[in-house]
Amino acid sequence: MFDTRELGRSPGALKRLTRSVPAPKDLGIEVIGVAEGAPVELVLRLESVMEGVLVTGTARAPLGGECVRCLEPLERELQVDFQEMYAYPESDGRNRVVADTGADTEEDDTLFVEGDLFDLEPVLRDAVVLALPLQPVCREDCPGLCAECGARLADDPDHHHDAVDIRWAALREFADSLGSGGPDGASRAGGDRDQDRNAQEE
After folding, report:
1. How far apart are CA 189 and CA 174, in angstroms?
2. How many CB atoms lie within 10 A of CB 170?
3. pLDDT 10s digit of each residue in the chain, 202 long?
4. Between the CA atoms of 144, 147, 148 and 149, what dihedral angle is there, to the nearest 10 degrees?
5. C-alpha–C-alpha distance, residues 3 and 124, integer Å
6. C-alpha distances out from residue 126 to 18, 81, 83, Å
7. Are 55 and 46 in contact (CB under 8 A)?
8. Are 68 and 135 in contact (CB under 8 A)?
9. Residues 6+ apart with CB under 8 A from 167
10. Which residues make Cβ contacts (< 8 Å) with residue 51, sequence separation at least 6?
11. Running DSSP on this structure, what letter comes out for residue 35?
């Protein structure tokens, strides 16, 4: 929460501040984000306007995640700019009773100053998440992992597997059986029986 009492409500009044805050939980997406509790450096400009407080700022925070191609951990620094209007509760008749038409209104997306305080977290969360890469990589030309064995290809550029045409698989099995004495053994057994038969005829 940030306090606006020192700013006042005179239109045109300005206040600048710098603050370091711990990152909230789940500030990111599945593969990359800001760790909970990591320092988020904020530089803010608060401006009082007729309707409320206009907040303009920059956030810097460390990012951690993993490469979507090779799954190696990666670290980055994020810098993101944002701007949001926080309305005074009375500025747009917030307390008015409005007929339920079943349609969404702009009021649903409006942020308000609550008791001279405003909550920056939803604005910061939206800004950070929208700025994150959906497919983070450790480097632009990361070759990823071997589809057969999972080896990291960047560590072994010459890594490969000998491809075997499935149409030759039966022939290879037959060749292996020859080496293990399969058909040859049967042929030798047949030859021995022929020799015994010839010996008996003599």
Report:
1. 19
2. 9
3. 888 888 888 898 999 999 999 999 999 999 999 999 999 999 999 999 999 999 999 999 999 999 999 999 999 999 999 999 999 987 655 444 343 444 444 456 789 999 889 999 999 999 999 999 999 999 888 888 888 787 777 777 777 776 655 666 666 677 777 765 555 544 554 555 555 555 555 5
4. 30
5. 17
6. 20, 11, 11
7. yes
8. yes
9. none
10. 85, 87, 88, 91, 92
11. P
Tracing tokens 């064995």 back to the chain, one arrives at: 149
Give the integer Cα–Cα distance in Å for 124 and 108. 18
Q: Which amino acid belongs to residue 159?
A: H
The rounded Cα 24 to chain-centroid distance in angstroms is: 17
Number of Cβ within a 10 Å radius of residue 89: 13
